[in-house]
## 1
Amino acid sequence: MSKRATTIFCRHCGAQGAHKHGKDARRRMRYKCMHCSKTFTRRTNTIRSGSHLTDTQWDQAARKFCKRAGESAEDMAREMRMNRKTAQKLNRTFRALVKELEPETLPGNSEWDEAKMSKQWILGGVSRELKQCLLKAIPNRREESIIPWLYDKSDPNGTVFTD
């Protein structure tokens, strides 16, 4: 079985044909672009760029975030044996990535309900067709707190189901 050559693209200019250029201080493979002459690693221009954490630690933290929708920084720091502020930064990074996935409105027919969790009211909606969802912390469950946001985030051509 022959090994297939991998084309490496520059993280700075996007040109193809970068070649290996030694290793960085953390012994990660470094590459040099033939076009712009800049050096880079696999982490350059990614969320892992400049981080002292290993790839394994990043993967562990991502799994923890996905499992519980953001494990507390205290718990993450204790379980992964890292500084609490590092765990806080990881949580902020993951939340920012997830925020970009949030839809502007729920398409089609949507179901809405409110619930109280740890003294905080939460309004949630889900699209019946695409299964997308939205959550929002609300001050109380009065009509004037819920209705404006609900109609702003629902599809005007869809039906809203709520209690």
## 2
Amino acid sequence: MIYMPKLILVTGNGRNIGKTTLVEALIKLLSSQTKVYGSKVVKLGESKGSFHGDHSNLSNGRGGNQIDDLIYDTKTRLVDSIIEENMECPSKDTARMVIAGAEKAWFIQSSETELEKVITLWIRQSEPDGIVVCESAILRSCLIPGVMVAIKQSAPWENLKDWGLPFTLANVVIEKSVEMPDYIRWAEKIINQFDHL
């Protein structure tokens, strides 16, 4: 397991429940005090443009700064990728992170079996020297963040997904109902609660 004490991980058990909105709020507040970076980590093959924003313009390395030496998955014929946001499409989640105040943001895709290798490579080559705010449903399987925030949506909700990890791993659990929580207020609470950030 990788330990990143300066990483805030935002995760949850549904789509369209406000994870990116909370990430933006955290970045906006933190960037006024310190260097902050953003990242989005998804399972290889799950980069659905309707949910994460279309990253196809970055996938060939010409649209963004792609880190080399990535792992090739012989089963799926897809390549794990680490791509720095280039701001060509401002609606993407990683572009929204930069707009909120992140120095840089990366979109990372990985198979679950290679995730720890890919994250280790990203840390080594990108060397983020501040707080990293990351949105991911899979990252906790190989990494222990400084703070983990989980947004828990209860049924009925059409975009619930099997998160696969217990909510007891989270330092903060936000219970979401039909209405969207006040994520600016939650971001303030999270930053104030954890003095190591």
## 3
Amino acid sequence: MTVQLEPATAPEGFTLALASLTAALGAAARPGLHLHEVPGPRKLAPYSTAVAAEVLRGDDEVASGRFVVLHDPAGQDGWRGDTRIVAFVSAEIEPEMAADPSLGAAGWSWLTDALAGRGAPHTAVGGTVTRTSSTRFGSLAAPEEACEVEVRASWTALPGTDGTIDLGEHLRSWCDLLCATAGLPPPGVSAIRH
């Protein structure tokens, strides 16, 4: 796991948290979900790292996202801790789903349920759920409307009972959110194909 550092070395607690993230990268994978490390942002916190993901159905990408970990030993206003996670998920959806007025609340519950389901201790969670519908014309014309849902969220990761932050729990929660947004069934459940 590459960490973008301002100072020369990361604090020990953050180094341990990164080890849990690295261990979870392989364990979080499931069919159709592809995770890979990407550079973390350099200016938002003294230390950062990031993971990107795509969900494929056959050869088609149906969802993508980014999971960014920011660490500032001094904390920042509004974080209520020193390790902040910034997450983004975007997925194609059917036009009927985009028209459903409950999509925003459902999309937000995918995140909160994923965090609770993985037992990822957190605070100060906030974000948005956005739906977009596009009709293409001219040389970009397509036979049907293209619709997407985006979930953007951030939360502060808290230490567990052992006093360390398990970023692996948070990464797995984000993967659950990504897969739910893409319409994949939960792990261990098979989708019924028509």
## 4
Amino acid sequence: TVDKIKQQQSLKKKISRLEEEVEQKYDFQKRLIGNSENFKKIFPLIQKASTTNITVMISGETGTGKEEIAKAIHYNSPQKKGLFVAVNMAAIPKELAESELFGHEKGAFTGAMNARIGKFEEANNGTLFLDEIAEMELSLQAKLLRVLQEKEVVRVGSNKPVKINARIIVATHRNLADEVRAHRFR
């Protein structure tokens, strides 16, 4: 019993040290490096987004650090104790995207041998980062809008909504205003 107590105390100390390391690693004032005036304008926006639970959209060219900014927001927010779950929408086949995001029930489709939670449920009490959101199919965008409004998901093959509490951060290299005008984005 004493050994188990010592082991548990050791694990708690280790977790505490690791949490401190993560906080230092994602201190965006130190981690994000840039000297341009436009870059310096990002810091107050990150700070503001970190103190709320609002949905955030990050835009910028490929390779400019959109995911790093999303991580900075997450690890400096009240959601930092939850998971940061990143999903690249361009890398998910269209026919699997709904199941990947919302999960599915056993037998919902051929090959669904077990129930599986989706990325929204995985990110519960944390942050879900949807990269390349403009690649998402219009029909899936409608379901995403419902999730954002109702804060619940319905797994594929189920009628039962599951409440979620995940902060959503999305990113794209495309101009979403142009995508909306072209009827490719809701």
